[in-house]
Amino acid sequence: MDKFALISFSDTYKNLPMWAYYASNFTGMCLEFDPCELTIGDLQNEELCPVAYAENALPSLTIADLGPDNLPSLIKPRLTRKRIEWAHEREWRYLTGADGKKHYVDDALRRVLLGPRVKPEHAKRICDALGNRPVEVLRGVIRGYDFSFQSIKPASSLQRSERVGAGNFSRHDALFEESKLELFLNVSIESLIQECERIKLRPNLDEICYINIATAEEDSIIIQTTFKLRGGHNTYYKNFYYDRNLKLLSIGNQ
Asked: Are the C-beta atoms of residues 107 and 234 closer than 8 Å to each other?
């Protein structure tokens, strides 16, 4: 149990009770992440689980239950279960193998939503800190029963965002068997190159290493990449799988 840590999320940002008790009575903020992009960083091998809400707790565990083979299957449902009164939170949890910082790629954080009672000086500090990041900052507004958000800082374009990774891409080094790819794709090979040029703009992209027809994913191509995180370390290889029309199918690990 010492090796477990929890990171809690919700699938909604408009829940007023949560703004009251988790965001210091509407003076705090809510961070909106893209869960697919979170798999690229330090959470890449962790599972995002929905919380189950119930009227009764699961049975207590005994020493006999805690064998190494069945421990994860017993612990997980207990760490993702809450009383039914909390169902309005619509919570999801990462169960991580260790506590401490978890770094993510910059564009995994999509928006920062500030409460309507946030202090102006705090809002300015947040906008300044995210000035060169692809992150939009919004501030909440309450009018009667309506709770909405207004943008106070647009997301920086990828071209203007602060770089973390080197952004390396060489068509000559990365593209394998170009003639086979041309036959495989329903679009031009130049469309594939344009997609790689788009990917390399991502702030944390360190290198596009390899492009070819995939063997692990049927009827798809693979673009293999590495990303550098703000903790100073690189991710394992991240594989982007596309169909013949360059529609993104999935993101996986090496």
From this structure: no
